[in-house]
């Protein structure tokens, strides 16, 4: 028995009907999505895509971090990405807690001091989104021919609200 047995069993069933073997790994729909790690978000399904269609980069808050930019540059030049969506969401923990609040909650759970841990909280979600879209648009290795859009995903309605 391992902690992963149930998941590995599901994986064997998944493999039985697996159809992506030998797939080239490009984004077939030409799409990349930067979004939050939040479990309420299904980034492919929310825009009608499926496995193989898009590059997905996720982190707390759906922020355009240096690592997100690395992924987007690779996506654009090597993996067929032509449209980029930056998608933070409503009721995001990263945008609704202060750094101190998150540290306090984690410290309480961990039972040890968490004051040294950064969480990169978002104070103003719309301002951060505008800044993140600008980071992508102004990146020297992302050409102007690539469409970049900012959207806020509503985790209660499933709708994407165009923002930038
Ligand atoms: Zn979130």
Task: Write up this protein.
It is a single chain. With 164 residues, this protein is α/β, with parallel strands linked by helices. 33% of the residues lie in helices and 16% in strands. The protein contains five helices and five strands; from the N terminus they run αββαβαααββ. It has helices at residues 5-16, 66-78, 93-96, 99-110, 125-137, and strands at 31-36, 54-59, 83-87, 147-153, 160-162. The chain has a five-stranded mixed beta sheet. A hairpin with a 6-residue loop joins strand 4 (147-153) and strand 5. The N and C termini lie far apart (49 Å). The mean pLDDT is 96. The structure holds zinc ion.
Keywords, separated by commas or semicolons:
binds zinc ion; 164 residues; single chain; alpha/beta; 16% strand
Instruction: Describe the sheet with the most strands.
Output: 5 strands, mixed
Spatial separation of the terminal alpha carbons: 49 Å
How many helical elements? 5
Mean pLDDT: 96
Radius of gyration: 18 Å
How would you sum up the global shape?
globular
> Largest beta sheet: what is the strand line-up?
2-1-3-4-5
Percent of residues in beta strands: 15-25%
Category from helices, strands and their pairing: alpha/beta
Query: Regions with pLDDT < 50 over 5+ consecutive residues?
Result: none
- What is the H/E string? HEEHEHHHEE
In total, the number of strands is 5
Bound molecules: zinc ion
Proportion of residues in helical segments: 25-40%
């Amino acid at each position: 028995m391992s902690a992963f047995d149930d998941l590995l069993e599901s994986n064997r069933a998944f493999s039985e009907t697996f159809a992506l073997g030998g797939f080239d790994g490009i984004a077939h729909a030409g799409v990349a999505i930067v979004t939050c790690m939040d479990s309420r978000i299904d980034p492919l399904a929310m825009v009608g895509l499926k496995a193989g269609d898009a590059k997905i980069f996720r982190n707390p808050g759906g922020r355009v971090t240096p690592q997100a930019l690395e992924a987007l540059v690779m996506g654009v030049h090597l993996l067929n990405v032509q449209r980029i969506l930056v998608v933070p969401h409503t009721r995001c923990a990263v945008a609704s807690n202060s750094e101190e609040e998150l540290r306090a909650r984690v410290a309480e759970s961990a039972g040890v001091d968490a004051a040294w841990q950064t969480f990169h909280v978002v104070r103003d979600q719309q301002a951060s989104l505008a800044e993140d879209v600008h980071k992508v648009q102004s990146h020297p290795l992302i050409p102007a021919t690539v469409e970049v859009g900012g959207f806020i995903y509503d985790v209660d309605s499933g709708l994407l609200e165009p923002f930038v």
